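Report of the visiting student (M.T.), summer placement. My assignment was to run the structure pipeline on a short list of targets and document each run. The first record concerns Extracellular solute-binding protein family 1.
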Amino acid sequence: MKRTLISVLAMGLLVAMLLGLAIGCQSSGGSVESKDIETSTGGQQENAGQEAQQIEQKEPVRIVTSVVGGKDPDENKLFEQEVKRLTGIQIEIIKPPSTEYDQKVATTLAGGEKVDLIYTGATQFEKLFPQGFFEPLTDRIKNSEVLSDPNIIDPKEWDRITREDGNIYAVFNKDEGGTLPIVRWDWMQKLKLEPPQTLDEYYEVLKAFAEQDPDGNGEKDTYGLTLSKLYDIQPFMGVYGLIGKHAQDDNGQWYIPWATDQAIPVYEWLAKLYKEGILDPNFATNTTANERELFMNDKVGMMVYWAAWVGMFNDQVRSEEPNTTFEAKGIEPPKGPNGEALLMAGEDGLWVIPKNSTNKDLAFKFLEFWHTEEGNILGTLGILDNDYKLENGKYVLTEVGKSHAMDHGAPYPKSLKWVNPIGTPLNFEGANQIVKKYAKPQTARADTADAMSIVDKYGIKAVLGELSAQDAVKAMRSELKSKGYIDIE
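After the run finished, the structure tokens were exported:
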């Protein structure tokens, strides 16, 4: 039976549901089912139906976002009403089309349009920050009982996004998780394979997936590893201590670690996998949806992907085939000679308040709310009586809530106090712990995306055998230097 992915919208929602189950969750393992949900957040239950004192406003807090809010214009209105009920603040959600979002944010700021809160990724933040659009939030954060609470947000996180002038210009949206190697654990067990610890051991496991008929159909129609271009190779680069995107050396010179001579053995290793038919031959053109299809439909034994998908893969396949042996599981990355290993932490999603906002106080009040328990419930479960109900001390997802998969903008809250009342999906907690142990954030500059496209271009040629790894890395550096993306060649 071919396992098909649900629609793109529903899939994205389901991913987010699994992300929301991580921080502080103490429930036992097992697949998550849609069911009545017991919760220990008694205070939240008691206050859930109460309305906050209303605040006099001349105009709503205008929020430009691609992630927070409802799933359609009608639910955006319900979301606005729920925020007002819970905080007394009237907001207006503005959701540009996802394909135009970055451009909309840039033109909104450049044109001086009056908005009060903007959601942006770290890469776009870096592009916009030099233009001086953002209000410093340092004092507001220090004086906030919520955001300055080390039991809610680790102070080291604020240190990480403090700029050279000593100011903080953004507030986190959620915890972004990270990626790691995910394997068909049922194949590992069937072939009696142990979790690999080194790059050589990874090779042997991937070779077995490709050659030992793990799907049991008597045909040689499986691959060991699938990729989407070279976006997913951080675990293998980590063997040599190489982090993705930009980095600075001890002299402050910028370079791309994946374009150094130290990366050559990784490109050679991947080229070996490709030549021997172990690597999915379509890796250079794959989308992540292609990767997921292969993994769920018994065509590939390993992919590198977000930890949240470990549980999602299990729930998705088992919901379609209750008697399946399918089991996805995250495993530790390969280690280098000195035990080195690196995974990729997700890029920060950030809230900024434009300097020209006329509603700065209430905009910041919304950000404080977003990191409270009530805000976490809204960002995950959603809207009371639309997405969930409280019945006899239990959270009960409505049919609408089930379809929204507990994602209303922050499915994985940043708060260290957060305990998701649903529980933990199969094998997700283990994957999450691996990410926490090995993942590091990558450094994004305004030109990082363009720089990495050059790395991709020549790296793919090396894997395909069109260039030697040495020549590919040399070509990367030459073009990166000529375009000003690195300081040293």
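Confidence is low (pLDDT under 50) at residues 5-43. The chain is about 40% helix and 10% strand. I thank the supervising group for their guidance throughout the placement.
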